[in-house]
Write a structure and sequence with these properties.
Number of domains: 2
CATH architecture of the largest domain: Alpha-Beta Complex
Structural class: alpha/beta
Radius of gyration: 20 Å
Largest sheet: 9 strands, mixed
Shape: globular
CATH class of the largest domain: Alpha Beta
Strand content: 15-25%
Number of strands: 9
Number of helices: 10
Distance between the termini: 37 Å
Length: 341
C-alpha cells in the first residue's frame, strides 16, 4: 500500500449526542430534482432541527441561480465556473459547512429528514462509526444492493473483462459486489459494509483528515477512495436498513455517455495506482486495453468507434499521464466521436 496518511481518531473526540448536520448537494442537470427535495424538506424541517446548513454547488451554471426561492431553508448556493467534477464540488460544499456531521446527498436520492436524524443517531451512539448509509430502494420500492467491497485490481479486472469466463474470477466478482447483501431488507440490523455509496451518506466530519474527496477522482471512484481512507483510519461504515432512501441512479452521469465508460477505467486506474502502486495499475490497464480491442472487433458503427477512442486514450501514455493527474476524460476526447454511442 502506498504512503497514505489516515485521519486521526482523536479528531472526533469532541463528538457528542445531538450534533448538527450539514448537507452537501451537487447539481448537474438535476435542478428539478433539487427543487423537489427543497419543497419536501421545507415541510419537514421544523420537526428535525438538527439540519442547520445546506450547501448546493451548481456544476451546470444557468440551470439554478441565486434567485431560487429556497422556501426558508438554510441554503447557501455556490455556482461553479463550469462542470468542475463531483469531487471538487463536494469539497467546495464541505468547505462551507461547519457541522460535525455531513450528509452527502445526490439530487437523485430522496430521503426524509426524519430518516437523516435516525442515521445521525447511529453516529451519536457508535463512536467508532465514521459513515452511515441507508437502505436503497428504486422508484418501484424494490430494495437494491449498491454496497461494495474495496476492490483490488484483480477484482476490477474480473468485473469488467472476459476473465469472468473463469470460476475464480466469478467468485471475486461476487465478493466485490457483496452478493450476500442481495437479500437485505428493512428487518435487518445495521450491518457493516466496506464501501457504501456516496449518493446518500452521512459522514462524521472528524473521520476525514483533510478534504472529503480526493480531487484526482473528479467523476468516479471518489467514493471508493473515501471508503478506503476511512477504513485505513480505523473507522467502521454501516448500512442501516431501518431507514431508506429512494434512489434513481446515474441521473447526472448518464449525460457522460460513452465518456462515462472511459471515466470508469481511468478512475479505476487512478484508484489502483494510489492504493496498490504503478505496477498493478499497469496490469489493470493492459487487461482493459485487451478487452476493448476484442470488443471493438465485434462491434460496428459508432459503438466500435467509441470503443476504439477509449482504447486510444488508455494506450497513449502522454494523454493518460494527464488523465491520471485528475483531468476529466472530456479534456482528451477526440473530436468527431459521439459521446452517446
Amino acid at each position: 500500500m502506498r504512503n497514505i496518511q489516515p485521519a486521526s481518531r482523536d479528531a472526533a473526540d469532541h463528538v457528542s449526542s445531538g450534533c448538527d448536520i450539514g448537507v452537501a448537494i451537487v447539481n448537474y442537470r438535476s435542478a428539478s430534482l433539487i427543487l423537489g427535495l427543497i419543497e419536501r424538506w421545507s415541510r419537514e424541517l421544523c420537526s428535525a432541527p438538527r439540519i442547520v446548513e445546506i450547501v448546493v454547488v451548481d456544476n451546470d451554471p444557468g440551470e439554478l441561480d441565486a434567485r431560487v426561492d429556497w422556501l426558508g431553508l438554510p441554503v447557501t448556493y455556490l455556482q461553479s465556473a463550469g462542470n468542475v467534477g463531483y469531487a471538487p464540488a463536494v469539497n467546495a460544499a464541505c468547505g462551507r459547512l461547519t457541522t460535525p456531521y455531513v450528509l452527502l446527498l445526490n439530487p437523485d436520492a430522496e430521503i426524509a429528514i426524519e430518516a437523516v436524524d435516525r442515521m445521525a443517531a447511529v453516529l451519536d451512539s457508535e463512536l467508532s462509526v465514521g459513515a452511515v448509509a441507508p437502505l436503497h430502494v428504486d422508484h418501484e420500492g424494490k430494495v437494491t444492493n449498491p454496497y461494495r467491497r474495496i476492490p483490488s485490481w484483480v477484482d476490477l479486472a474480473s468485473h469488467r473483462t472476459r476473465l469472468q469466463r473463469f470460476e475464480w474470477a466469478r467468485r471475486r466478482k461476487r465478493r466485490y459486489l457483496c452478493e450476500e447483501l442481495d437479500g437485505i431488507h428493512a428487518g435487518w440490523p445495521p450491518s457493516e459494509v466496506e464501501q457504501p455509496p456516496a449518493s446518500c451518506l452521512l459522514l462524521r466530519r472528524g473521520a476525514i483528515a483533510d478534504e472529503v474527496m480526493d480531487e484526482r477522482f473528479p467523476i468516479l471512484f471518489n467514493d471508493v477512495d473515501l471508503s478506503a481512507r476511512l477504513r485505513l483510519g480505523g473507522w467502521r461504515m454501516l448500512v442501516d436498513p431501518r431507514v431508506s432512501c429512494r434512489h434513481e441512479p446515474a441521473t447526472s452521469t448518464r449525460y457522460l455517455g460513452i465518456q462515462g465508460e472511459a471515466e470508469f477505467y481511468v478512475g479505476a486506474y487512478r484508484f489502483v495506482e494510489k492504493w496498490e502502486g504503478r505496477v498493478r495499475a499497469e496490469a489493470f490497464r493492459t487487461c482493459i486495453i485487451a478487452e476493448l480491442t476484442f470488443a471493438a472487433r465485434h462491434q460496428r458503427g459508432p459503438r466500435a468507434e467509441s470503443l476504439q477512442a477509449i482504447r486510444a486514450l488508455l494506450r497513449d501514455r502522454s494523454v493518460f499521464d494527464g488523465l491520471n493527474q485528475g483531468d476529466p476524460v472530456r479534456a482528451y476526447w477526440p473530436p468527431g466521436i459521439s459521446v452517446t454511442s
